[in-house]
Amino acid sequence: IRSFSPFPYNEVAEKLKNVKAVAALDRSMPMGTTGALYNEVAGALAANGQSAIMTNYIYGLGGSD
Predict the structure, then answer these.
(1) What is the pLDDT confidence band of residue 27, given thresholds at 50, 70 and 90?
(2) What is the full DSSP assignment across 6-63?
(3) Which tens digit of pLDDT belongs to each residue from 29-57?
(4) 58 φ, ψ to 5°?
(5) Which residue windows are transmembrane per the record (predicted)?
C-alpha cells in the first residue's frame, strides 16, 4: 500500500478475496487497540462481505527495522 489516505478499500478487498489469512504490519503502536493498517484492512474486507483470519504485528519502532 503506497497511499494510506484515501485508503484503497475496494482494491484491497479485490486483492484479498481468495485468502484465508491476513497479517497486517504496522509501524505504530496505539495504546489499547490494533494498528491503523489492520483496522483499515479489516474494514475493507467487512465492507465487501469478506472474512479472513487476521493478525496484527507491530515492527520498526524507534527506527530499528
Answers:
(1) confident
(2) S--HHHHHHHTTT-SEEEEEES---TTS--HHHHHHHHHHHHTT---EEEEEE--GGG
(3) 778 888 899 999 999 999 999 999 999 99
(4) -105, 130
(5) none
Which residue has 484479498 as its cell numbers? 16
CA angle 56, 31, 9 (to 5 degrees): 45
Is the preceding peptide bond at 6 cis, omega within 30 degrees of 0? yes
CA distance 52 to 56: 13
How far apart are the C-alpha atoms of 34 and 55, rounded to whole Å? 9
Residue 4 has pLDDT above 90, yes or no: no
* Spatial distance between the Cα atoms of 9 and 16, rounded to a whole number of angstroms: 11
